[in-house]
Amino acid sequence: MKVLLITTHLHKKNLAAIANYGIEFDVIEDPRHLQHVNIHKYDCVYSPAILIDPRRFPHTRFIFGPHVSVFPTREICAAISGVPNAIYVQPSEWARDAWTVSHRDMVGFPIEVLPFGVDTARFCPGATETEDVYVFIYFKRRHPSELAALREIVEKWAGTSATVRIFDYVSGYKEEDYLDYLKKSSFGIWLGSHESQGFALEEALSCNVPLLVWDATKMSQEFSPGAQRPHPPIPCTSAPYWDSRCGEKFTQINEFPAAFSRLLNNLDNYRPREYILENLTHEKCAEKFAQLLRPL
């Protein structure tokens, strides 16, 4: 099978995952080079961010997404609705539902769920244990008052017996610092907005770090000063890949004390890395990818 991968605007984590799938691709980085490519010779074209008219190549399978658009647009629908050789992919079920449920009147093409593999070799548990207690709060595009409320409770609990660090996605941090801290963390507290997949959260789970997630339930909970328009109140989650082995979730601040207590009382019982190894390794995600690459 001959497959063309167009990497323009492909998220670096997704690209790193695909590079470990053991699938042979011809690769184009610059879409201007497409004019020199004979697409007819390919069985499948995966273009995460660039639309190509699939009607011009009826014997080639096209996979678009998830980077073409956050929501369906007239351009996307005009290009691939009713076209039997084209599909769109989203990294998780709720992200797919944001198209097929919230915009059902626009979407006339199949949407498949395609997560991307987590680097479980790199994001793995620390080799040594320490008597010191390290905890982190991960903060991504939620209202600062929510962070303040969490921080007050957690730092009061920690006192002088635990170290608490905040990783702020918007302010930025070095991934190596994050990985080093994960390898010694007892648990983490997650305050994020909607995540179509949530690599940083999954990387924490891959390091076998249990999490307490203040889950977003609507996309409008994202706090982004200066944004031209807020997201609509479409149902979402901050942790689309999750089960009871990963930790605890809550949705309202008044639920935090009970959820925090459950987490602390069950730290030895969670198995977050086990969940990741069952669902989101490069091998598992490569299998799902290969199924979508099947010829017409």
If you had to describe this structure to a student in words, what would you say it looks like?
There is one protein chain. With 296 residues, the protein is an alpha/beta fold. The protein folds into two domains: 3-117 and 282-292, Rossmann fold (3-Layer(aba) Sandwich), CATH 3.40.50; 133-279, Rossmann fold, CATH 3.40.50. Helix content is 28%, strand content 18%. The chain contains nine helices and eleven strands. The strands form two sheets. Strands 2-1-3-4-5-6 form a six-stranded parallel β-sheet. The model has no long low-confidence stretch (mean pLDDT 95).
Shape: globular
CATH superfamily of the largest domain: Glycogen Phosphorylase B
Poorly predicted runs: none
N-C termini distance: 11 Å
Number of helices: 9
Helical residues, percent: 25-40%
State which percent range the strand residues make up. 15-25%
Structural class: alpha/beta
Strand arrangement within the widest β-sheet reads 2-1-3-4-5-6
DSSP E strands, number: 11
Element-level helix/strand string: EHEEEHEHEEHEHEHEEHHH
Q: Compute the gyration radius: what is it? A: 21 Å
CATH architecture of the largest domain: 3-Layer(aba) Sandwich
Question: If you consult CATH, what is the topology of the largest domain?
Answer: Rossmann fold
Summed up, the domain count is 2
CATH class of the largest domain: Alpha Beta
pLDDT average, as an integer?
Answer: 95
For the report, how would you describe the main beta sheet? Answer: 6 strands, parallel
